[in-house]
Amino acid sequence: MQITEGVMSAKAVLAKAKEYNATMTVFLTAVLLCSIEKEMTVRQKKKPVSLMIPVNLRNYYPSDSARNFFGWIDIGYHFLEQSNQFEDVVAFVKEFFEKELTKERIAIRMHELISLECNPLLRIVPLELKTVFLQLGTAFSLSSDTAIFSNLGKITMPEELSPYIRLFDVFTSTPKKELSICSYKDNLVLTISSHFESTDIEKNFFRTLSGMGIKIEIAAKRS
Length: 223
What we know:
The chain is built from 7 helices and 7 strands. The chain has helices at 10-19, 24-37, 86-100, 103-117, 120-123, 127-143, 200-211, and strands at residues 2-9, 49-56, 70-77, 147-154, 177-184, 187-194, 216-222. It is of the alpha/beta class. The chain starts with a strand and ends with a strand. Helix 1 packs across helix 2, helix 2 (24-37) crosses helix 3 and helix 2 (24-37) packs across helix 7.
């Protein structure tokens, strides 16, 4: 597995995002989309670049559960039919997020999933068969996504531990390329994990940020 990690100032990235009137997540989503597009052939561009983005449902439905409580949205950008100018990609992502990341839209999706789970016909299907179909459904869903972008947000720790902690990082083993980010104080860590040999998308991603004047400390590992 290829792991490429960049450490940078959270304030610097946020300031750059504000120049495009966007949040950090919207800004980095646009950077990732454009980084992927640079490595696509004309034939590949006939299909949109699709990102799966996990959503922390606790931001919309407070919960004390220690279990995973998240949904996701899928954003697609068709570079062959839409502008490849970065500011236009940012504007599209921003509009998409504003439309999809609302309590009402998330509730509709949750209700659809719950109604499927409560379907009386499906409830009598043996668990073993349900598991098979769930695995097939997951595989199909992943096959339609180009990459994954997971933002864990800001990490806080007790103040007495602060002198001993510089940063946190996170990455996952994934069949796709996955960008995972988190921040601690002003240290923002962006980690891309991948099973692919090529790291051209990673290079595009961090060079784009560096080209915008953001100083980055890069580390890479292959395991």
